[in-house]
Amino acid sequence: MGSEFATVGDKGRYEATVKELARLARGTFLDRLGLRLVAIDADSLAAELPVSPEIAGRDGRLQAGIALAIAEAAGTLASQAVIDRRSHETACFDASANHCGCVAVGETVRVMVRALCLGGRTHDWEVHLKTADDRLLCVAKLRIAIKNRTDEPVRAAA
User: What is the pLDDT of residue 9?
Assistant: First the structure.
């Protein structure tokens, strides 16, 4: 691909490569955490993240709030993979999570982002965080706004 922006795929949406998304994530929250993108297609994203002391609580386990932040950032990145980033941008405006388990420092978290609905103005994603041995840690649901770059900033409802 080689271009800065994704190309239009078979489903009429933009499709980015892992390399393009890694470049897009450089210097962001996900990059600072050490997230490594593994795979991307038109409807999903997969990544891995080592649990470091910086994202663990005093008990040495991944903090639940960080798990939700990882899910939100990965879902937003997945939306950015399927839009024309020259004319549009993304903003998560609704996120919820159920925490089902915990993982200790030194272990690896697998992040799987799957599209539920990819509309023209909003994207809905489900994000699963799992251990390397497939134990479920967190299930998050996200709504991502797709807005024109010239739009006003996304504001929370009053």
Answer: 47
| Length of the chain counted residue by residue | 158
Classify residue 77 as exposed, middle or buried by CB count within 10 Å of its CB (0-12, 13-18, 19+). buried
Specify the amino acid at residue 11.
K
d(CA 90, CA 88): 7
For residues 142 and 67, what is the distance between their CA atoms, to the nearest angstrom?
13
The C-alpha atoms of residue 60 and residue 106 are separated, in whole angstroms, by 9
pTM of the model: 0.84
**Both tokens assigned to 4:** 């800065």
Q: Look up tokens 């010239």; give the residue.
A: 150
Task: Write out pLDDT tens, residues 7-35.
Answer: 444 455 566 888 888 888 888 888 888 88
Share of the chain above pLDDT 70, in %: 85
Question: What is residue 43's three-state secondary structure?
Answer: coil
What radius of gyration, in Å, describes the C-alpha atoms of the chain?
15
Nearest to 122, CA basis, from 62, 76, 86, 58: 76
Structural class in CATH, domain 7-148: alpha beta
CA distance 18 to 14: 13
